[in-house]
Design a protein that fits this description.
Length: 173
């Protein structure tokens, strides 16, 4: 640094030193104010980029999708009006070399990578991945069967108005 540029800095330094000696409290408040303003200016001008983690099948769970993952446009209708639509679930392709007694459970992870990012496990799923059986299924099935035999109607009931929906669900499974 040359003497010409160093001289104004030395003068400014000497003035700050004298002001600090006369009114230290006011000087510290001024320094704090300048620091805050610089921090706000930097924070405003240099916004951090939001990192978006992309993963497959992370479409909006509230919007229906086709098998290809594209969003389906709902037909226009008035609120409260519903028209039944015939639907048949696509047939599932069998897994090659799969056995219910040897298949390991798939880990359930309702979170994404990063600092505690909970997703509640909501995601678009392929039809073939909706229900996946593993080697614990026979034990759970036997437990449920035993509980239904022991408790009967106290264990498992279906409201009359929900009966047809329950039958439809069982047909899907």
């Amino acid at each position: 640094m040359t003497t010409e540029t160093a001289r104004p800095l030395k003068i400014a330094y000497d003035e700050c030193k004298q002001m600090f000696a006369r009114q230290p409290k006011l000087f510290l408040y001024g320094l704090l104010l300048i620091s805050c303003l610089v921090w706000i200016a930097i924070r405003t001008l240099v916004r951090p980029k939001k990192h978006s983690i992309s993963r497959p099948n992370s479409l909006d769970p509230e919007k229906p999708t086709s098998d290809r993952g594209t969003t389906i446009k709902a037909p226009v209708r008035t609120p409260g009006e519903w028209h039944p639509v015939d639907f048949k679930r696509p047939t599932a392709a069998p897994y090659p070399n799969w056995d219910v007694h040897t298949a390991e459970p798939i880990p359930y992870r309702p979170f994404r990578h990063g600092p505690y990012h909970i997703t509640m496990g909501l995601r678009t799923m392929q039809w073939d991945e909706w229900i996946e059986l593993d080697n614990q299924y026979p034990r759970f099935h036997e437990d449920k069967k035993r509980r239904i035999e022991e408790r009967g109607d106290k264990c498992c009931r279906t409201a009359h108005e929900a009966y047809h929906g329950a039958v439809e669900l069982l047909e899907e499974l």
